[in-house]
Amino acid sequence: MLTFVPELRKNTHNNILIRIFDYIEDMELDALTAISPIDGRYRGKTEKLAEYFSEYALIRYRVRVEIEYFITLCELPLPQLKGFDQSLFETLRNIYRNFSQADAQRVKTIEQTTNHDVKAVEYFIKEELDKIGGLDDYKEFIHFGLTSQDINNTSVPLSIKEALEEAYYPLVEELIAQLRSFAEEWKDVPMLAKTHGQPASPTRLGKEVMVYVYRLEQQLESLKQVPMTAKFGGATGNYNAHHVAYPEYDWREFGNKFVSEKLGLQREQYTTQISNYDWLGAAFDAMRRINTIVIDLDRDFWMYISMDYFKQKIKAGEVGSSAMPHKVNPIDYENSEGNLGIANAILQFLAQKLPVSRLQRDLTDSTVLRNVGVPMGHSLIAFQSTLKGLRKLILNEEKIAADLDNTWAVVAEAIQTILRREAYPHPYEALKALTRTNKKMDEQTIHEFVKGLDVSDSVKAELMSITPHNYTGIF
Predict the structure, then answer these.
(1) What sign for the dihedral angle of Cα 60, 64, 70, 73?
(2) Rounded to whole angstroms, how far apart are CA atoms 36 and 47?
(3) What are the CA-CA distances from residue 433 to residues 229, 330, 416, 420 (Å)?
(4) DSSP character for 437?
């Protein structure tokens, strides 16, 4: 929080600065009194999403869709719109391009009378046309033939599409890039693998990190392939009003072109009053898979830190525990895991709930849709926390090497495999008898075993050249 602001405000005589400081203090108070941590504690990590999912943003997107729809009717053109001066199109677009919080507040004021949020947007745009002047003959073609869901079910997927492209994808790609950098940096670092929590065939640290690069890239590409679709077809999806007024036009083709060319979405061809939400559910499921991979990553690095494979960079003044001064806790991974858990719970609910609606439409989707930014907010908080944790890592190669040196039993797989190649009798059982004891398995133990085998000297040399440090396969 900006605790210096009150002192600065007291010592200035500049009215503009005083108003700025007052505004900053109000922001601090809002953060302290916010119900959701997305808009409170973590506001700095999620503020960008306000441009897509706030009430202000939803109104701005609605205005954008309404204006682009009106422009497209003029371009058709409908007979009554042939006289519209097309040089004014950019003036119309500036209504949403320059849309301010004061404009949004005006819409909310109108809504107090209409008790209908989308109708308030229509009336606001008509007011803006009045300001341009000379457009009275065209005003009734704002929101012509539409129902509110034609605006909502284009505005919301458009906001999700742009939030993914401008906020979500870049952060996932930054995470992938950081992991890829580590995979390259650590590609030659041998490491004891753990399966079922027990020592297993050695691997390389870089390869284990590359697993997450591969998984995240695959699922991110899958998410990007999910089409962002929109409902746009009148009151119950059949263009009833459009067709009765102008039966000579192909309104399906008009809708397809408008949604595709003006909004960058795909129009759902058969709908009720609302979107089918099937593809939106698919997008939420794809996001959930990405989040689940990051949870897996968080837990692995948490474990590596607990195994002392990594130290963490220490920042002066930070406290790991209120009681234990020595502690540097892996809190970034824990914060990430917790936020991803909340995000996934909401994403799962959205994906399951939204495609279900009674008959041609019930209102349950309306309030649910207002929450689509919440899981994205928790996801962005999580990705930033994971990145913060990764960038604190200090590789402890000595500890990793020591674990390999203390676990020579893991070369048993290599020895018995070569013995199988040489047709040695019962090689698996021979190695099982050697290694499944409480005796310490070290280099000497393994080499004594190899020396006693009835194989050629060249095979013995081959077997004795295998160590926990070089038995790491390919990468």
Answers:
(1) negative
(2) 13
(3) 62, 40, 12, 16
(4) S
3 state SS of 98: coil
DSSP tag of 431: H
As beta bridge partners, residue 329 has none
The interaxial angle of helices 169-185 and 373-390, nearest 10 deg, is: 20
Tell me the angle at which helices 148-163 and 117-132 cross, rounded to the nearest 10 degrees. Answer: 90
When pLDDT is cut at 50, 70 and 90, the band that residue 314 belongs to is confident
Just list the catalytic residues.
196, 321
Integer CA distances (angstroms), 450 to 200, 425, 455, 459, in order: 20, 14, 9, 9
Q: What is the pLDDT of residues 330-366, one digit of tens each?
A: 999 999 999 999 999 999 999 999 999 999 999 999 9
CA-to-CA distance for 409 and 452, rounded, in angstroms? 17
pTM for the whole structure: 0.90
8 Å CB contact between 182 and 206: yes
Do 409 and 437 form a contact (C-beta atoms < 8 A)? no
Single out the residue of 274, 243, 38 nearest to residue 145, CA to CA. Answer: 243
* Neighbouring C-beta atoms of residue 145, cutoff 10 Å: 20
pLDDT at 154: 98
Closest C-alpha among 32, 399, 24, 423 to residue 192: 399
At residue 100's C-alpha, the angle toward residues 97 and 104, to 5°, is: 110
Cα distance between residue 146 and residue 163, in whole Å:
26
The one-letter amino acid at 125: I
- Cα 421 to Cα 331: distance, rounded to the nearest angstrom: 48
Which whole number is the average pLDDT over 167-193? 98
Instruction: Give me 321's structure tokens.
Output: 């525990």
Residue 368: both structure tokens together: 């649910």
Q: Is the dihedral of CA 337, 338, 339, 340 positive or negative?
A: positive
Burial of 29 (0-12, 13-18, 19+ CB in 10 A): exposed
94 to each of 63, 89, 361, how far by Cα in Å?
A: 11, 9, 34
**Which residues, listed in sequence order, are joined to residue 199 by a DSSP beta bridge?**
194
pLDDT beyond 60 at 224: yes
**What separation in angstroms does the CA of 380 have from each of 47, 90, 377, 425?**
10, 34, 5, 57
DSSP state of 410: G
Q: Which helix (H) or strand (E) holds 199?
A: strand 198-204
